[in-house]
Amino acid sequence: MVDGARAFTAPKGIPEYLPCDGFVRVRDALLTAADRAGYGHIELPVFEDTGLYARGVGESTDVVSKEMYTFADRGERSVTLRPEGTAGVVRAVIEHGLDRGGLPVKLRYAGPFFRYERPQAGRYRQLQQVGVEAIGVADPALDAEVIAVADEGFRSLGLTGYRLELTSLGDAECRPAYRERLQAFLARLPLDEPTRRRAELNPLRVLDDKRPEVRALLAEAPLLIDHLSDASAAHHAAVKQHLDDLGVGYVENPRMVRGLDYYTKTTFEFVHDGLGAQSGIGGGGRYDGLMAVLGGQPLSGIGFGIGVDRTLLACRAEGLPVDDAPRVEVFGVPLGDDARRALVVLAARLRGAGVRVDLAYGGRGLKGAMKAADRSGARYALVLGDRDLVAGTVALKDLGSGEQRAVPLDEAVDVIVTALARQ
Ligand code: HAM
């Protein structure tokens, strides 16, 4: 180390994923499930105008009031590292007029989101999500599709130890009356001052109180699911019917409270039992007012965000192999300078033919280079010495069986492509 130099560490609460961690495999499995249902990929800005989240997610939410990474840029504009993806997608749909074509607009996204939360296992300040949003059609079959896509993503990874919790948060017709009913109920309870204030501001959130003594007081609280408008009740029944048809199991959780204010009607969470306190591996729902709130046409929307970090933890908890595939299929071992020149070229030709190839660099001896070949996870080693070069051949060694044979150099690409395809 240079004198006076110190080693840096990643910021607190921010996980990193190394090549062996299986991050890409998990993220891509979730993205693929969305791709199969026709969701086009959108890459969103990592920061946006702060007002977008204040208006879109809700100022009274913890996410907006306590957890945002907000700062003034050099032009004194207030910007915020995105805490979630839905507001940004809706902004982009409106800005680019995507809602003027065929509906629904179906988009998927993946990447880091930022929330200044207290870090603990499964709760990070930089979290990774895969999400989808379907905007512009209020068909309950679309709600079922969104849920089924998330479920299929988890299943394609082999996960089984999770459950889907489902409820309806109603609509503009039934919510105000329910809110008053709940507030009247809460006003009669001996609540402490902060809880009383929360009851004024956002009574639904009081239902999420984790303290046993408060939970006991809330046992008889009125539930929105019992006071839905006819339209919301019919929608909810239809979503459940579609889920039954699809064989996607769910449990109703009428006390579900989501941390974002835009939800209406269908609301859901995927909960994994092997993760301890941070058990939500994904969640989402309808947000039928959000397009209008953000200045667009009054179109409906539904989507989900899946926590990739937590899905990875769930895979580990279930003992599922999530390591990324071996880095390469073929590993070149040159013995001598001329052999190195020839193998560098052969490696490039193999890559051109779609084969993943690495080489032993740095003039390592045969033993060290073969060790590197084993470590790489490659199926084959290509060993080339000066004598092979004169003979115009290369030794192709099957690293599984140990079998080795000489292959003419100018046929090596075809032979290897055929051998790999046979597996
Ligand atoms: P959310 O429930 O806030 O929803 O986040 C979705 C998922 O992200 C959670 O279920 C969890 O797995 C993961 N997650 C959230 N916070 C953290 C954290 N601090 N550390 C690790 N993982 C975390 C949304 O963000 C909505 N935008 C989802 C949505 C899309 N609703 C409709 N469309």
TrEMBL record:
This is Histidine--tRNA ligase. It catalyses: tRNA(His) + L-histidine + ATP = L-histidyl-tRNA(His) + AMP + diphosphate + H(+). Residues 36-334 form the Aminoacyl-transfer RNA synthetases class-II family profile domain. PROSITE patterns: AA_TRNA_LIGASE_II. It comes from the Bacteria. Homodimer. Belongs to the class-II aminoacyl-tRNA synthetase family. GO terms for molecular function: histidine-tRNA ligase activity. It is found in: Cytoplasm. CDD domains: HisRS-like_core, HisRS_anticodon.
